[in-house]
Write a structure and sequence with these properties.
This protein has one domain: Spore Coat Polysaccharide Biosynthesis Protein SpsA, Chain A (Alpha-Beta Complex), CATH 3.90.550. Helix content is 37%, strand content 18%. The protein is built from 9 helices and 9 strands. Strands 3-2-1-4-7-5-8 form a 7-stranded mixed sheet, with helices on both faces. The chain has a two-stranded parallel ribbon with strand order 6-9. 40% of the residues are buried.
């Protein structure tokens, strides 16, 4: 395969029941495009047969790769791993539950003429939530976003949507520096991108709420704590990030 235009990175932890439909849907929709692509599933130490399910598609889904980690490192850790293993000109990570269909990437392409990072959003005008999250998840999510905006990323209304695309040079600049291994990694990636002067664009996407989401109430608190850490690290950037390639 020649160098792909698009690399799709899918972090997966105990996704044996959902990953098949996601892989089939991604391959079906990307196979109609004129550009080359690769799909990289990064197994995050699943205790079910996620890896075996993905392996069964290796001869079916075009340019499918599996990175099979035996131990759980966290979503941020495996997205970082996938981003750095990818070879695409554009590198996009998306959730294994397919909550944002890969066809939403087509909306992003025109913006890469002007921007370096394009992120899907459930909170800006034009976004379609089908169905919307239940109120008891919307409230802490919105409150958390206000906190993240105030402390770290003003003007970005949805830092946590799992559908983000980075130009190759951006991914190779910021992901080696990433320190957050779990849910706060989204905010860290955007904060680092802005620190280096990369241009970030938030666009509306169609998003489907999965009632079996693995996001727990404690996740919101974890993200807020990690946001404070990121702000602190950025204050002392040279000491905290320079030379960090872990």
């Amino acid at each position: 395969m020649s160098k792909p235009y698009l690399s799709v990175i899918i972090p997966a932890h105990n996704e044996a029941k959902r990953i098949s439909k996601t892989l089939i849907d991604i391959d079906k929709k990307l196979s109609t495009q004129t550009y080359d692509y690769e799909v990289i599933v990064v197994n995050d130490g699943s205790t079910d047969n996620t890896a075996e399910v993905v392996k069964s598609f290796l001869g079916t889904v075009k340019n499918l790769k599996l990175i099979d980690n035996q131990h759980n490192g966290g979503k941020g850790a495996v997205v970082k791993q996938g981003m750095l293993e990818a070879s695409g000109t554009i590198r996009l990570f998306t959730d294994a539950d397919n909550s944002t269909s890969i066809d939403q990437f087509e909306k992003m392409i025109p913006y890469f003429k002007e921007y370096d990072v394009i992120i899907g959003s459930r909170a800006v005008k034009g976004a379609i939530l089908d169905p919307a999250e239940p109120w008891y998840r919307q409230i802490p999510g919105k409150m958390g976003n206000i906190f993240i905006q105030f402390l770290l990323l003003p003007g970005i209304w949805d830092t946590q949507c799992g559908f983000k695309a980075f130009k190759e040079e951006v991914a190779e600049k910021i992901f080696p520096l990433m320190k957050i291994a779990r849910w706060g990694f989204d905010a860290e990636s955007l904060a680092l991108a802005k620190h280096f002067g990369f241009r970030v664009k938030e666009i509306p996407v169609r998003w489907t709420n999965d009632v079996f989401s693995q996001v727990k109430p404690s996740t919101y608190l974890q993200v807020l704590i990690e946001t404070i850490k990121i702000r602190w690290w950025l204050f002392g950037f040279d000491n905290n990030y320079s030379g960090n390639n872990k």
